[in-house]
Design goal:
With 767 residues, the chain is of the alpha+beta class. It is built from 12 helices and 34 strands. This is TMM8A factor.
Length: 767
């Protein structure tokens, strides 16, 4: 594997691997081979600063069979504005599933298995563009994933339009070189091959059958063209990231050389590479032989499997003849299985895969969730995750030991979860590993009867759960013992649905779906289980109270508007106060949440009320004619509603109406000043005690809203915004019209009574 960086290369750089390998047609002796090059490209994506997995940009590639060289071209670029600074881009690679990353250093959930991803860094410093290549020789065929992201997000809340963010763009292209005529070894049949030179290794492959317990690869009759001793290197398997388990052996001399594998991957092509370490111009002829050790599986009959499936869906009636016959048949079959289990190397348990939803699968054992486990042969449960759409979730396996089923106090049920092939020798080595995969161990015993395993983003493959009974004082005392273990296995998009402080989001890259947790209230981690920076319940309640109760500062503005006969304006302020209060009560990240209607509706009404409040306030200050003012009220509200529907968070949705209303106000004030031949408003007290304080509060509110809000201080900075805006409205509202009298409820009631009395007197006089 190799990597490099530099300026953008020409197209010739993509073809460099072709220059290093032989091309042309040849025979299957290895003298020459036919290589086919393929190029795969995906559209570029704009990178984001990292705060959760949804910020990382995913690229999904499929590497074809017989690929001998894989080259990725990673191209990163940035904008040219002054806001673009030096930046480091992190790129992660993984075979079979999306990479499990942790840039923030948070904790993973308990019982989760995490293996670090392979990653590189790309730095954008002087140049605006960077091209990096990564080479992988003999890569594993199948799905490969790349994830790229920027460093941790600063947490600042930026208003769209006030600042211009720098755009960082990343694109990944894949170039593969594969053999079109790879020699195929037939199991048990020696095959003579020729290695032309050290620069031209020989590639071959052999198909591993199902239920292969072991494999043995041998090199025989090694002879060089110069009649010298052979020096060969044999590599079995392909490279996978982040971990690679290739088996390498060096053979010297004419003595037969062999390499043994335990639990090779079932029903897959195993890649073999043989290269000469001798003289540069010397060819080597060698005989290769691959042989397998078969494993005889044992399981219940297919008739019983379907019988159990039907019973689980619609059980027989109690007391019926069918139920009695089925019970007797099950008892006889179980007795027969126990008597014959010693002749099998493993015991298969029939499993049904139930697809519940996207990245959601449940595995149901046909013979019930409880499986028998003994020490003679492992019990095997197949977990099918090879659809290509299962690697974007979390595989959960739980074991529960029935303590009454094990008579031995020192007995332990050892389990292993592995991909591609099962572990068949747990009682001998207790090593949870196969030929090319490091499995995940589990164990239950009388003192610890429960065990859970969480595999984050399991790779696309057939997964196996192997269970076997082990006695620490010796296997002899375990031969007659049998344990009952209840097995629960399922695939879920997010483990525990991200908990109470997280939201499980389904992400998509083209046709591939995967899930991630977006945490809130200071919680973090893969499943939102890290409470290092979590807000306490008291802090959550305080944040909710500040953001909701601060809206009641509109009450003075409403009172001033009603007192001065601005009833339409008072209605708008009441609308804004109501929806802002309940929007922020629904928008809280913690447990102090109350939603009286749909969240999106509350948000839209809050934004609409805020902008319309500013619009009507400035128009009210302009002192235009009433008919014109109300026309502008309605027309402006309709236009604001339309613009908010198009872009709810755009800064010009607020600044546009404000600027237009200010133009109208200034024009009206100039008109009034010219008409009266003095400054308008004419009173210095109006300027000093009302206008200047109101304008100052408004500017401070805009500054806090646009430049000071972050995710951590949002609950009090936004509350300050509420208070300042409400107070500025109370100061900026103009005095009532001179011809309007102040509210006097007693006088108006008396007046009404007097009018009614006068009317009656007039009617009486007429009659």
């Amino acid at each position: 594997m190799a990597g490099g960086a530099g300026p953008p290369p020409p197209l010739l750089l993509l073809l460099l691997p072709l220059l290093a390998l032989p091309a042309g047609r040849g025979n299957r002796t290895g003298a020459d081979s036919l290589y086919i090059s393929e190029y795969f490209s995906q559209s570029a994506q704009k990178l984001s600063f990292y705060s959760w997995y949804g910020n990382a940009k995913l690229f999904h590639f499929h590497v074809p069979e017989d690929t001998v060289l894989l080259r990725w071209l990673l191209q990163a670029s940035r904008g040219k504005g002054p806001e673009c600074t030096n930046m480091e881009i992190t790129v992660h690679f993984r075979y079979g599933a999306p990479p499990v990353i942790n840039p923030l250093g948070t904790r993973f959930p308990a019982n989760a298995t995490v293996r670090p991803s392979y990653n590189i860094s790309i730095t954008l410093s002087g140049a605006a563009q960077n091209t990096t290549f990564v080479n992988v020789t003999t890569p594993a065929a199948g799905d490969w994933f790349i994830v790229a992201h920027l460093p941790e997000a600063a947490g600042r809340i930026e208003v769209k339009g006030f600042s211009t963010p720098c755009h960082y763009v990343f694109q990944a292209d894949m170039f593969v070189l594969r053999l079109a005529d790879t020699p195929i070894l037939e199991p048990g049949v020696p095959t003579l091959q020729t290695v032309v030179s050290p620069a031209k290794p020989l590639h071959a492959k052999v198909f591993v059958p199902k239920h292969a317990a072991g494999m043995r690869f041998e090199l025989r009759r090694c002879m060089t063209s110069e009649q010298k001793a052979c020096t060969m290197r044999v590599v079995l398997g392909s490279i996978t990231l982040p971990q690679s388990f290739q088996k390498i052996v060096t053979c010297t001399g004419t003595v037969n050389c062999s390499l043994a594998l335990d639990s090779p991957p079932w029903e897959k092509w195993l890649q073999i590479m043989v290269e000469s370490l001798g003289a540069a111009n010397a060819s080597v002829s060698v005989e290769m032989l691959a042989s397998f050790t078969a494993c005889r599986p044992g399981s219940t009959s297919s008739f019983l499997n379907f019988s159990s499936l039907n019973q689980s869906q619609a059980g027989p009636r109690p007391g019926s003849a069918g139920a009695a016959g089925s019970s007797a048949l099950s008892a006889r079959e179980a007795s027969r299985n126990v008597s014959h289990q010693r002749s099998f190397c493993l015991q298969n348990q029939p499993v049904v895969r139930e697809d519940l939803d996207v990245v959601s699968v449940r595995y149901r054992l046909l013979n019930g969730p409880t499986v028998p486990v003994n020490s003679l042969s492992p019990t095997l449960v197949l977990l099918n995750l090879n659809t290509g759409m299962d690697s974007g979730g979390s595989l959960v396996v739980s074991l529960l030991l029935n303590k009454t089923s094990v008579s031995l106090a020192n007995a332990t049920v050892v389990a292993c979860v592995s991909a591609a092939s099962p572990v068949l020798s747990l009682n001998a080595t207790q090593n949870c590993s196969t030929a090319f995969f490091q499995g995940y161990p589990l164990s239950v015993n009388a003192s610890s009867a429960e065990a859970t395993l969480i595999v984050l983003y399991p790779q696309t493959d057939d997964w196996f759960l192997s269970l076997q009974l082990v006695c620490h004082k010796g296997q002899g005392e375990c031969n007659a013992a049998e344990a009952k273990v209840t097995v629960f296995a399922y695939l879920t998009p997010c483990f525990n649905d991200c908990g109470p402080y997280g939201q499980c989001s389904l992400l998509r890259r083209h046709g591939y779906l995967y899930a991630g947790c977006s945490c809130k209230a200071g919680w973090g981690g893969w499943s939102c289980t890290d409470d290092t920076k979590a807000q306490s319940v008291g802090a959550q309640n305080l944040a909710t109270l500040l953001l909701t109760l601060s809206n009641f500062m509109f009450l003075p503005a409403i009172a001033v508007a009603v007192y001065r006969y601005y009833l339409v304006e008072a209605s708008v302020y009441t609308y804004t106060m109501f929806f802002s209060t309940f929007y922020h009560a629904c928008d809280q990240p913690g447990i102090a949440v109350m939603c009286i209607m749909d969240y999106d509706t509350l948000q839209y009404c809050d934004f609409l009320g805020s902008v319309v409040s500013i619009w009507v306030t400035i128009l009210c200050m302009s002192r235009v004619k009433k008919i014109l003012k109300y026309v502008l009220f309605v027309l402006g509200t309709l236009l604001i509603a339309m613009s908010l529907q198009l872009d709810r968070r755009g800064v010009w949705n607020m600044m546009g109406p404000c600027l237009f209303a200010l133009v109208i106000m200034i024009a009206a004030w100039v008109h009034h000043g010219v008409k009266r031949r003095h400054c308008y408003p004419s009173s210095w007290k109006r300027w000093v005690f009302y206008l200047l304080p109101g304008i100052t509060l408004a500017f401070i509110a805009i500054s806090v809203y646009a430049f000071m809000e972050t995710n951590e201080n949002y609950y009090y900075t936004h509350s300050i915004w509420h208070v300042l805006v409400a107070c500025s409205v109370a100061f900026l509202l103009p005095p009532r019209d001179k011809h309007k009298k102040p509210w006097a409820w007693s006088q108006k009631l008396t007046c009404r009574y007097q009018i009614c009395q006068n009317d009656r007197e007039e009617l009486y006089a007429v009659t």
